[in-house]
Amino acid sequence: MARQSISLTKPNDEWLKAQVNSEEYSSKSELVNDLIRQARNQQAQADWIRAKLNKSEANGFTNETKEQILKQSKSLLDGQI
Question: Domain of 38?
C-alpha cells in the first residue's frame, strides 16, 4: 500500500480523531481510505447517470417504463451495476 503524508486543517484533524476515538474506525488511514472509496463510488454513480442522460438526449425518449428506470437506479445505488 502506498504511503502518503498529508496536511489537514485543525477542524478536519479533530473530526478524524473523533471518528477514530468513537471506534467507528481503527485509524485515520482507514477512515481516509473509506472516504476516498465513497467519493469514487459517488463519482461512478454520477458518471453512469451522466452517460444515461447523454445517451437519452442523443436517442430521444426511452421505451423503458418508469418502474424499469427506478429498478436500474436502485441497483446502481446498491452497487449491483
Answer: 11-77
* CA 42 from centre of chain: 3
d(CA 51, CA 59): 12
* Rg, C-alpha atoms of the chain: 19
Q: How many domains does the chain have?
A: 1
Cell numbers that stand for 75 in this block: 441497483
Taking only the tens place, the pLDDT of each residue in 58-72 is 887 778 899 999 998
What is this structure's pTM? 0.63
Angle of helix 28-59 relative to helix 66-77, nearest 10 degrees? 160
